[in-house]
Design goal:
- There is one protein chain.
- The protein is mainly alpha-helical and 70 residues long.
- Helix content is 50%, strand content 11%.
- The protein has three helices and three strands; from the N terminus they run H-E-H-H-E-E.
- The longest helix has 14 residues.
- It is globular.
Length: 70
């Protein structure tokens, strides 16, 4: 069986959904990687994109949380 990569738009949709459904969700990069079954580079890239768009924020200890609504 050959695994096909999931398009990043689908993963971004899933990540946003997880954060919307679970207020207070706080994940380290390693936890996010395990939860969404991503390799480190893909996970870092997706999290960085969500931070740059203002959906997520990074805490002082490196975890990712949902940004406060503006």
């Amino acid at each position: 069986m050959i695994l096909q990569p999931v398009p990043s738009a689908d993963i971004l949709y899933r990540i946003r959904g997880e954060y919307r459904e679970m207020p207070g969700l706080r994940l380290t990069p390693a936890q996010a990687q395990r939860l969404w079954g991503l390799d480190r580079a893909a996970c870092d890239s997706l999290l960085a994109e969500l931070v740059s768009t203002g959906f997520l924020a990074r805490t002082r200890d490196g975890a990712f949380v949902r940004s406060s609504p503006r």
